[in-house]
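Title: Comparing notes on inverse folding

I've been comparing how different people in this forum approach sequence design from structure. To keep things fair, I'm posting one structure and asking everyone to reply with a full sequence. Here's the target:
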């Protein structure tokens, strides 16, 4: 049961669906439920009312469920709120979009009240997305599958359980006949009265399909169907009437009560089996869809766990190594060879830190979930350090890499207000690209222009091919570069914009020159370091 103090927000544009979900929650013990007909209304309610969990439909007018999810995840006060998306969507890219946006769980229509309760309890009890605990969904059978003998490709395959058929008839021979007919393909349960049927259908383990007789003592099949439709757990369970009643009135009455088919006795076993199998294909598809979504959710949580490890368990020690190397390098007793080796160690550590930064933070930036904690950054030191490392890396090209700071004599070098690691990654990418593109024995110029905002301008000989200039900062855009991923300029753009800056490309064909201009916010009142 759910804690009655839990406050729910149910969002669906169809009033009957809102009421069904609310009734299901109340049957689990929920007492505080507010409802909204679209995402925009829900967002207004979230700003004014205390809510513990959101259950939202996907397709709605004004603001869809996916847009509501993204708005919740980008709001500092709401970003950690459990959010369950209820959907009939089957397109993989849409589900990937919801997972990328930070959905807590996905529930495929139609679903039972018990399934809803499991998802709600899980969403309320497991740590929010992005922390290091993986919680495997409890509703599917799990089996390990290794892909291509690569431990990194180890995944969990979710296999849905066999569908369940409930056979309801007051005659023992009919129960035996129907149960034997389907036992090899399905899980079969039996009930000899209407009351027993209702008990099973409204339990924690309801069937996927009911084969229901009409003429039974006590409670007939029509009354059983009517009561099933009144209960939130059994209202969506499909019914096939199997009866000796052949009149059109009875057929119409059964269909009006929501039956999906009407089969007359004496039954044709092969014909009935075909009808059931045809319908069960839909049941299997729905179960497999839910299982696939569960698998995708677990993989997303696994990825977030790995990202958490890289961010917290690797960055700290690496930063310590870099600090120690820099401290030792300041020892005047070291000779030039020792200093060069220390700088090589520092370079290697910074390269690893750069890779960690890109792998763990770019995904957040792409999905709008990154929150900048801006601090003063000694941009002059970073530019000089990256330039020095590039001189060593591209020594065979005999490049001259200059760093010029447009600062009047006696004044202190201005600082950026941003993230030091982002600035290092950003300019390491841009200066590396400039050095790769520059001809041998040429010059790469890096200029820091004082102003508000600060400008960092990188120039090199050589031009970007005309066919990719408009897409230069796009994802996977590359040309003529062996082993290039097309992510360097793209990540530079993301890292710049994440710090509230801008980046632009200018190509001068007559002058055979490429210029990258980056603007970043200027730190005010922190100009206390010379570089």
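Reply #1:
Here's my take.
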């Amino acid at each position: 049961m759910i804690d009655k103090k839990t406050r729910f927000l149910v969002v669906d544009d169809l009033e009957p669906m809102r009421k069904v979900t609310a009734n299901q929650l109340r049957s689990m013990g929920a007492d505080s439920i507010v409802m909204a007909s679209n995402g925009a209304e829900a967002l207004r309610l979230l700003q004014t009312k205390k809510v513990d969990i959101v259950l939202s439909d996907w397709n709605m007018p004004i603001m869809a469920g996916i847009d509501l999810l993204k708005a919740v995840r980008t709001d500092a006060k709401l970003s950690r709120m459990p959010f369950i998306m209820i959907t009939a969507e089957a397109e993989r890219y849409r589900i990937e979009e919801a997972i990328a946006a930070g959905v807590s769980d996905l529930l495929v229509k139609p679903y039972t009240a018990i399934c809803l309760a499991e998802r709600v309890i899980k969403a309320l009890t497991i740590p929010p997305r992005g922390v290091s605990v993986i919680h495997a969904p409890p509703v599917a059978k799990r089996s390990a599958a290794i892909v291509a003998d690569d431990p990194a490709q180890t995944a969990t395959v979710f296999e849905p359980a066999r569908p369940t058929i409930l056979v309801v008839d007051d005659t023992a021979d009919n129960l035996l006949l129907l149960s034997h007919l389907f036992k090899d393909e399905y899980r079969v349960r039996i009930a000899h009265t209407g009351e027993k049927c209702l008990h099973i259908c409204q339990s924690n383990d309801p069937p996927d399909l009911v084969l229901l007789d009409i003429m039974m003592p006590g409670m007939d099949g029509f009354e059983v169907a009517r009561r099933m439709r009144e209960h939130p757990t059994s209202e969506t369970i499909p019914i096939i009437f199997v009866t000796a009643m052949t009149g059109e009135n009875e057929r119409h009455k059964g269909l009006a009560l929501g039956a999906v088919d009407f089969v007359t006795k004496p039954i044709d076993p092969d014909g009935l089996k075909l009808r059931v199998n045809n319908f069960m294909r839909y049941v299997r598809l729905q179960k497999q869809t839910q299982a696939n979504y569960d698998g995708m959710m677990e993989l997303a949580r696994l990825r977030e766990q790995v990202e958490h490890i890289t961010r917290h368990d690797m960055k700290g020690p690496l930063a310590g190594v870099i600090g120690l190397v820099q401290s030792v390098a300041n020892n005047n007793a070291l000779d030039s060879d020792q200093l060069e080796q220390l700088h090589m160690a520092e370079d290697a550590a910074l390269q690893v830190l750069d890779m960690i930064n890109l792998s763990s933070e770019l995904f957040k930036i792409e999905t709008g979930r990154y929150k900048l904690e801006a601090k003063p950054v000694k941009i002059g030191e970073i530019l000089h350090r990256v330039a020095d490392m590039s001189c060593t890396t591209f020594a065979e090209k005999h490049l001259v890499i200059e760093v010029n700071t447009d600062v009047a004599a006696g004044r202190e070098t201005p600082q950026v207000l941003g993230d030091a690691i982002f600035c290092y990654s950003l300019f390491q990418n841009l200066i590396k690209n400039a050095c790769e593109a520059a001809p041998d024995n040429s010059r790469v110029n890096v200029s820091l222009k004082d102003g508000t905002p600060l400008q960092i301008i990188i120039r090199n000989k050589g031009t970007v091919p005309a066919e990719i200039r408009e897409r230069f900062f796009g994802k996977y855009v590359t040309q003529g570069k062996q082993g290039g991923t097309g992510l360097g300029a793209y990540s530079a753009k993301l890292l710049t914009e994440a710090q509230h800056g801008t980046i632009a490309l200018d190509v001068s064909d007559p002058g055979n020159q490429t210029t990258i201009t980056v603007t970043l916010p200027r730190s005010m009142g922190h100009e206390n370091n010379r570089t």
